[in-house]
Amino acid sequence: MNRTIGTIAMALLCIPLLQACAFQRVTEHDGLETVIVDAETGAPVDGAGVYAVGYSSDQVRLLTTSDQNGAVLVAPSRKFSIQPLPPKESADLQLWACKDGFEPRQIAARSGWKVYFDAETHKLAQVRLKRDGGDTSASCPSRIPR
């Protein structure tokens, strides 16, 4: 009898914990397939960085750089994590393209609580980067808004 009461008491204590969070796969960053080109000339931009913002923090994180043909291929990434249920906050997930001498350009953005659990691959024919006519003393990643 005492054992049954102890089991019931333990179950009652654990139920709020089980409802409060869960071990789930969450998005680290979305994927991207595109070619990055100069907006004026249409020439491929070699070495343009693709950055993730807002996935696991407000940090700007370099995912890859474009090759000599301007091509970019990034697979979406997910990881296992303990997440609150239901999620208490909405996520604002962004992908940016940037290279010194060019203006940073937002490539993709998604927001809402569901984006934590669904990863996407954004497929764009081209991303056109405009030449930066202003102050270029700051490095490209530092000019990406957070």
Please explain how this structure is put together.
The protein is mostly beta strands. It is 13% helix and 42% strand. The chain is elongated and about 75 Å long.
Radius of gyration: 21 Å
How do the SSEs run, as a string of H and E? HEEEEEEEEEE
Q: What helical percentage do the residues reach?
A: 10-25%
End-to-end CA span: 58 Å
| Category by helix and strand content | mainly beta
- DSSP, total strands: 10
In one word, what is the shape? elongated
Biggest pleated-sheet summary: 4 strands, mixed
What is the number of helical segments per DSSP (H or I, 4+ residues)?
1
User: Kindly state the mean pLDDT as a whole number?
Assistant: 78
Strand content: 35-45%
pLDDT < 50 stretches: 10-14
Keywords for this structure?
13% helix; mainly beta
How would you concisely characterize the structure shown here?
The chain is mainly β and 146 residues long. It contains 1 helix and 10 strands; from the N terminus they run αββββββββββ.
